[in-house]
Amino acid sequence: MDFNLPGEDDPRRQAVRAFLAEHPAPTGPQLGDAGYMVPHWPRPWGLGADPIHQLIIDEEFRSAGVRRPPNPIGLGWAGPTLIEAGTEEQQQRWLHGLVSGEDLWCQLFSEPGAGSDLAAISTVAERDGDEWVVNGQKVWTSLAHHARWGILIARTGPSVEAGSDSDGGDSDGGDSKHSGITYFVCPMDAQGCEIRPLIEMTGAHTFNEVFFTDVRLPDAYRVGDVGQGWSLAKITLANERVSLSTGGVLWGQGPHTETLFDEVRAAGGVVDPVMRQRLAQTWIEGEVLRLIRMRTISAVVAGKSPGPEASVRKVLADEHGQAVMELAKDLAGPAGMLTDGGPLGRSVALWHYGYLFARALTVGGGTGEVQRNILGERVLGLPPEPSTS
User: Which of helix, strand or coil describes residue 114?
Assistant: First the structure.
């Protein structure tokens, strides 16, 4: 692996510094207009930046203490899908507010009866002239209570039975199970759209249930062809953005693995040999993840496909995040029972929140079990699980 960032005189680095000198506290619109919100996107929304360029930008932003406005679903999933499959009119309508961070987005995919098996969705969209009437329910919708727009998949036709010669024009590349699904953009303030909070055991409110009762969407809000929504949903899921900058252990949020070790060093270390061994093992896991990340980036820089590393990293990173949070709690000793108890007596409420939130890491975005099935079947060539039907 050969990976070195360019030095101080690199013109891309100088360009970032010039921008930050002019905008020491840049707003979302300023970042979006400069292409720095999502630099890997094509112009005019980004800079068409390669991985090295992205890392230079992230490094300079970290040094200047600049953080981009959060819009994880908009930038990670909705935007790439609109760039790939949206019309020019749709891109002009939605991407400006998305890139600036002014319009938050959410994802309306999962349902009570369709989580890991998204093809089992039952939310229905029926055509009525130039509109679609949507009825159904979604669940685990992050940020729905803040979002202006949502990406929605709904059933617009029946799935095609295996062996059928007719697909009614709605088949998805011959895959009968995923036919009859269409992809939409939904305004979250639409009449008939009801958002109900799901309070987590952290006490916070990130997730929601969303109910659709005769919600009317213009046909102009349909992305792609009728019945071809599954292929777009795959684009959305494949573009779940993995930041090239170092991320925290809670899905790219803080704290970092290094943060825990900074706390331990500041407290003078630990004496217990078992705890020292756990710290060593956690550090090793963090280094393995860092090297996998660098290996993935190096492959992209060399013009190669990164292969299964990203999927492997997803599985390992989620379990590592849980291990870091559990270790922080154990290092706190009896104080770990308190909501503001941090490792080694250092009071940091984030550790308590992170310990509770970390339970979600191996479930959200595809469970660890599902990820291992994907790796087994697509990477190792193992036979799929036998059907239960």
Answer: strand
* Sole residue written with tokens 């952290």: 202
What is each CA distance from 89 to 47, 85, 122, 132, in whole angstroms?
21, 12, 29, 19
What six digits make up the tokens of 371? Answer: 């990820």
For the ranges 128-132, 139-143, 269-273, 310-314, the maximum mean pLDDT occurs at: 128-132
Nearest of 264, 373, 365, 273 to residue 314 by alpha carbon: 365
- Torsion angle (degrees, nearest 10) of CA 325, 326, 328, 330: 170
Which pLDDT band, with edges at 50, 70 and 90, does 161 fall under? very low
> How many Å apart are CA 367 and CA 335, to the nearest integer?
31
Strand partners, 9: none
Is 126 one of the annotated active-site residues of the chain? no
- Among residues 84, 102, 131, 240, the one annotated as catalytic is 240
> CA 171 to CA 157: how far, in whole Å?
9
Q: For tokens 């709605």, name the residue.
A: 170
DSSP conformational letter for 250: B
Largest CA distance in the chain: 73
Q: Which residues of 344-364 are buried (b: 16+ CB within 10 A; e: fewer)?
A: bebebebbbbbbbbbebbbee
Tell me the β-bridge partners of 124: 135, 155
Residue in 213, 228, 153, 158 with CA at minimum distance from that of residue 185: 153
CA distance 32 to 25: 13
Q: What is the pLDDT of residues 42-92, one digit of tens each?
A: 999 999 988 789 889 988 998 998 989 989 899 988 999 999 999 999 999
Q: Are 116 and 366 in contact (CB under 8 A)?
A: yes
The 3-state DSSP class for residue 363 equals coil
- Rounded Cα gap, residues 44 and 42, in angstroms: 6
User: For the chain, give me the number of helices (H) and strands (E)?
Assistant: 12, 8
